[in-house]
Protein 1
Amino acid sequence: MNGPHLHHDGEDPFGPGSYFHQTRRPIVCLAFLAPLLAAYEVGVIWLASRDEPIHGGAGGWLRQSLAETGAGAAFALPAVVAAILLGWNFYGHHRWEVRWDTLGGMLGESLLAASLLVGAAFGTHALLGDGGAGDAPTVTVDLADDAGGAPRSTAANLVGAVGAGVYEELLFRLALLPLAYGLFRLLRCGPRGAAALAVVSSSLLFALCHHLGPQGEVPTLGPFLFRAGAGGVLAALFWWRGFGVAVGAHAAYDLIAGVLLAG
């Protein structure tokens, strides 16, 4: 795929050493995401010791699907993410340098994007409602069955927000967005048209998935429009700022809207 986020080092208009180029390198994204991956795995193990179910949208769904193939397969998820990013870095001929100041900048970008999404969520709720009294809709797709409907603990919500940030971006942005782009290119769309259609279609599917499955919400206009818009923002972050920033923004938003402001 020839999308902007897959430039080789020599093709970046800002230069191979620029901050904006470094954030898109897969190895830098992996270094940025490593603490989130580790925190999610530790959290899952801790929740299992307390007999609490695993939530967090795609993270819980992927883990449950893998668990059906073998006792230890569920814990292969971090290895899958690492293998994808390491392979991408190697075969894309990207540099292997990781700088601390770059990781700090990515954290700042993620928090800024999440804060803007929080403002947009409350603005959408104020204009269109449908999200619950004063609540900002989360951008987590809950595909896992919650048998019994027991309230989730704060710890479960924290772990779920981290897992959603990583694994929903893995599904909807890292996997689906390039596939949709390639499909529209095969249908003879130009590069810009294919990119626009890939963003729109993947964002609509992202919003729609919140209303599917046993935990799907009743479709309402406000949350659907917000999530479709949030999907577009996350796709733009992935396209131009890299996978790491998109994951960071998604996880930070769900931590703020789904945990800190939900109490």
Note: The CA atoms of residues 16 and 236 lie 21 Å apart.
Protein 2
Amino acid sequence: MSTPAEKGRLFMPTKPVSNRLVPSPVFILSSIRSGSTLLRCILDTHSRIRAPHELHLADLEVQLASPYVELAMQTSGLAKEEIEHLLWDRMLHRELELSGKDIVADKTPGNLLLWRRLAECWPQARYIHLTRHPLHILESALAGRPDQDPTQTENLVTTYLRELEAARRELGGLTVSYEDLTSNSDEVARKVCAHLEVAWEPEMLAYGSADHGPFVQGIGDFTENIKSGVVMPGRAMPAAADVPERLIPACRAFGYIEAVR
């Protein structure tokens, strides 16, 4: 005898519903420890851009708890993944409704590990790829995860860097570096505004003048630098001899080749 879910396959529409409440969200794709909280605070200060704390959309999952709801969803033409997409879309729309703004930008680093699915959910999404010197990413990640196996942390960082390069190639979008953001924030913010087709607003750089929510571990940077409300200068580039061999490909891919052997 067929189960309700199996019977439901007979009614599956041939084309998925693709309408979105937020058809063209912005995703800041970056590795962990790349300065994405700084960029999101600068963007969130803009009168038209809502850039919330990390939303961790990938961890919002839907459970179809019975064969009857499976049948109901299949009859409606909704796979579990598409229901999750609807939930993600609604979460971004909620941010716009609460803020009264019309552009939403999500900076969760974990988005980088599911960028293909983001592109499937939002075919018209826009992307900002944020790079940072790979060695500084690794050093910052190691400092922030003192109880973790250093090899595990290094593997995580190299995975993020590999996915960032793949996303840049496939998705297009604007690439900016943390080094430029901290040393020439005016120019970088102008480029981002042009990419998002919004007017440049000088007050963006004084992001401490706006409320960006709490700076707490787990949803973004929480250090004293980000709490200062002003763009702080970055560190000097590392010496070539200090860069581990494993990070050389990423240094080349993101334009830091002059800083490595």
Note: Strands lie at 26-30, 49-50, 103-106, 126-131, 174-177.
